[in-house]
Design a protein that fits this description.
Elements: H1 21-39, H2 42-56, E1 65-67, E2 70-77, E3 80-88, H3 90-94, E4 101-105, H4 106-113, E5 117-124, E6 134-141, E7 147-153, E8 158-159, E9 165-169, E10 172-177, E11 180-184, E12 200-205, E13 214-218, E14 225-231, E15 238-246, E16 249-255, E17 261-263, E18 271-275, E19 278-282, E20 287-292, E21 298-303, E22 308-312, H5 313-317, E23 324-327, E24 333-340, E25 345-351, E26 355-363, E27 366-371, E28 380-385, E29 393-399, E30 406-411, E31 417-421, E32 431-439, E33 445-453, E34 464-467, H6 482-489, E35 494-498, H7 508-512, H8 520-535, E36 544-549, H9 551-562, E37 569-573, H10 592-595, H11 601-607, H12 612-615, E38 625-630, H13 639-650, E39 655-660, H14 671-689
Parallel strand pairs: 34-35, 34-36, 36-37, 37-38, 38-39
Antiparallel strand pairs: 1-2, 2-3, 3-4, 5-6, 6-7, 7-8, 7-9, 10-11, 11-12, 12-13, 14-15, 15-16, 16-17, 18-19, 19-22, 20-21, 22-23, 24-25, 25-26, 26-27, 28-29, 29-30, 30-31, 32-33, 33-35
Organism: Ruania alkalisoli
InterPro entries: AB_hydrolase_fold (IPR029058), Pept_S9A_N (IPR023302), Peptidase_S9_cat (IPR001375), Peptidase_S9A (IPR002470), Prolyl_oligopep/macrocyclase (IPR051167)
Domain Peptidase S9 prolyl oligopeptidase catalytic: 487-689
């Protein structure tokens, strides 16, 4: 197995020039090759059309957010390719056919302005006489991370003439009052970090020039991201400055009316949060503090990494460190998320990658614990607040691989009220879901989910798709996918979701186990799952495919180059692959806390061992590979996929390449584009694995 770099110079660096005529000519030529041939088949057309009908279905659950008396939703379907922002009442939403009022039609806007806007969201003013009337709408050209911010009137349903306008940049805004925003964006030379994100936060008053707005905080060039926010909770209004130093280093400041900054003095690796009078601290690492008891004695306390702590903000600022431990990890559990309502805190705990909800209620200076009433008995449960400023209600989403997503509305302490259910988009009859554990090279037990036909013959002949991510403390849990179910499961394929290290399934330690010089452990975990599937005779190498995107594209790139003998096909989507150059391409510098600094010779020595672009050996036999990316991806540079494909094609390898001109890091800007990209992957896998 070859692990050393084979690239001594880079003959394909010209493909990093994203929109140069030469690079785009190369892209068009590659798109016209195997991907075009695949797209001409009747099987591709039927798969694409089936997926498109699912994405466009009127029966999908319209997720809603409460803004004043209205409930807003952004929606795409066959008639609204770019989508509409619309609103209704809760009473109407309860009905089978809600009455929606269109607030903003993105397709009509594009036609009027000759643009290709993609919706990036909106923030609504929630205080003062203009509360719930004014909004900031964020729009992206073609789906890139960079976007513009435009002031919008929710009564007239028009953009405000002469209103706030933030030119195209990575960044954002936060309402302070009807005439003032916090803004963090590109305001000229020196205003962005080396990662391409805002370095300066400003207070921007209506009618003044953006680049002359008052600076409230200025970070360092090497920082990751600077932002400022306004908390409009009644009786707890405050201004905050966030300084992201690196991906896992963060500082939070209270910004006084006089401009003074008071740091929330917790470890930089921790995630502090404020809700009403409470400070919460989510720890990534152990934290040892000193406090004084009533007798004046010094007490030393160590709080464990992965724990969630709480303390009144005022006592904390006065020097107390006597935290309430709201959650502490165990060998099998981690905190997936926590959600405040007005008076309660809901913990979502993963226990061997299965969700369990717990309610904590402040009571006399302590927290009283109770079970969440009536949680749905399915694989994955997510909870989000309806309005944590004023309400104790939460939205509850529940799903698994075979159970369509349901949405309920729950008042804490009462049975959830079902609101909407997604239909069955594929036939689950005869399918079963299991959880297994594979043993990695160092003995670690790695969980994975397996979805298969109930009467599966264990003879190694079953086409099987293995999916993983393994990075940035992101957990993968069972979720319903009509596209995957219809294109893969319904046709007899087996699906596997791997919970490898680098993710967050077992908390920060599971993530930290695969950082930097330990990155190989994530890849060993993925290979262990592949080997376990073969050992169980579920499949064999010629029938086993692997798929992943972004960091998961780096994962599958390493499966391709380090473990080619384990797979019959590999799908690599919007990937990182050139780990020597990644920190110099777009947002790559922001990920050095995950992978390391390739410009440091000592760190390059371990980074080179998981850089697929450098691990490629033209003399090695590789399985067929599909690369997909987007020209408009301004997060992970399309040059990664372009260069890797180019050197493999030059070596005569079996490469299918497709680059979508739009789409940003998500790969697609419309349902039609998403259906095309998804169908390419499933048909490529079906043909290569003989489904």
């Amino acid at each position: 197995m070859s692990r050393g770099p084979h690239v001594t110079h880079d003959p394909y660096s010209w493909l990093e020039d994203v929109e140069s005529p030469e690079a785009l000519d190369w892209v068009r030529a590659r798109n016209a090759e195997q991907a075009a041939t695949l797209a001409e088949t009747t099987e591709f057309t039927s798969t694409r059309d089936r997926i498109r009908s699912i994405l466009d279905s009127d029966e999908k659950i319209p997720g809603i957010s409460k803004v004043g008396e209205h409930y807003y939703n952004f929606w795409r379907d066959a008639e609204h390719e770019r989508g509409i922002w619309r609103r209704t009442t809760l009473e109407s939403y309860h009905s089978d056919d809600p009455e929606w009022e269109v607030v903003l039609d993105i397709d009509a806007l594009n036609e009027a302005e000759g643009a290709n806007w993609v919706w990036h969201g909106a923030s609504v003013l929630r205080t003062g006489p203009d509360a719930y009337r004014l909004a900031i709408v964020d729009l992206s050209r073609g789906g890139s991370d960079a976007d513009v911010s435009r002031e919008f009137d929710l009564q007239s349903k028009q953009f405000v003439d002469g209103g706030f306008y933030r030119p195209e940049s990575k960044g954002g805004t936060s309402w302070i009052d009807s005439d003032t925003l916090f803004v963090f964006t590109d305001t000229g030379e020196g205003s962005m970090t080396s990662s391409g994100y805002p370095r300066i936060a400003r207070r921007w008053r209506r009618g003044t020039a953006l680049d002359q707005a008052e600076v409230v905080y200025e970070g360092e060039v090497q920082d990751l991201y600077i932002a400022a926010m306004h908390d409009s909770t009644p009786a707890f209004e405050r201004n905050l400055v966030s300084r992201a130093i690196a991906f896992y280093e963060h500082e939070l400041y209270l910004l006084g009316d006089d401009g003074t900054l008071t740091r929330i003095d917790v470890p930089r690796s921790a995630n502090p949060g404020l809700h009403r009078e409470w400070l919460t601290v989510e720890l990534r690492e152990d934290w040892t503090v000193e406090d004084t008891d009533e007798a004046g004695r010094t007490i030393t306390q160590t709080y464990r990494g992965g724990s969630l702590l709480a303390l009144g903000l005022d006592p904390f600022l006065a020097g107390s460190r006597d935290f309430h431990v709201l959650y502490e990890p165990t060998p099998s559990t981690s905190l997936a998320e926590y959600t405040w309502t007005r008076r309660h805190l809901v913990l979502n705990v993963l226990d061997d990658v299965k969700n369990r909800l717990v309610v904590l209620t402040p009571d006399g200076g302590r927290f009283r614990e109770s079970e969440f009433v009536g949680p749905p008995q399915v694989g994955t449960v997510e909870v989000s607040p309806v309005d944590p400023r004023t309400s104790d209600a939460v939205w509850v989403y529940a799903t698994d691989f075979l159970t369509p997503t349901t949405l309920s509305l729950a008042e804490i302490g009462a049975e959830p009220e079902p609101l909407k259910a997604m239909p069955q988009f594929f036939d689950p009859a005869g399918l079963v879901m299991e959880q297994h554990f594979a043993t990695s090279d160092d003995g670690t037990q790695v969980p994975y989910f397996l979805v298969r036909p109930e009467g599966l013959t264990l003879d190694g002949s079953n086409p099987t798709l293995l999916y993983g991510y393994g990075g940035f403390e992101i957990s993968l849990t069972p979720t319903y996918s009509g596209a995957m179910g219809s294109a893969w499961l319904e046709r007899g394929g087996v699906y596997v979701l791997a919970n490898i290290r680098g993710g967050g399934e077992y908390g920060p330690t599971w993530h930290q186990a695969a950082l930097k010089e330990n990155r190989h452990k994530a890849y060993e975990d993925m290979a262990a799952v592949a080997k376990d599937l073969v050992a169980r005779a579920v499949t064999s190498a010629e029938h086993l495919g692997v798929q992943g995107g972004s960091n998961g594209g780096l994962l599958t790139g390493n499966m391709l180059t380090q473990y080619p003998e384990l797979f019959g096909a590999v799908v690599i989507q919007v990937p990182l692959l050139d780990m020597k150059r990644y920190s110099h391409l777009l947002a790559g510098a922001s990920w050095m806390a995950e992978y390391g600094d390739p410009d440091d010779p000592e760190q390059w020595e371990f980074i080179r061992t998981f850089s697929p672009y450098h691990l490629f050996d033209p003399d090695t036999s590789y399985p067929p590979v599909l690369f997909t990316t987007s020209t408009r991806d301004d997060r992970v540079h399309p040059g990664h996929a372009r260069k890797m494909a180019a050197q493999m094609i030059a070596a005569g390898k079996d490469v299918t390449y497709y680059e979508n001109i739009e789409g940003g890091h998500g790969g697609a800007a419309t349902n039609a584009q998403a259906a095309h990209m998804s169908a390419l992957a499933y048909r490529f896998l079906a043909e290569r694995l003989r489904l």
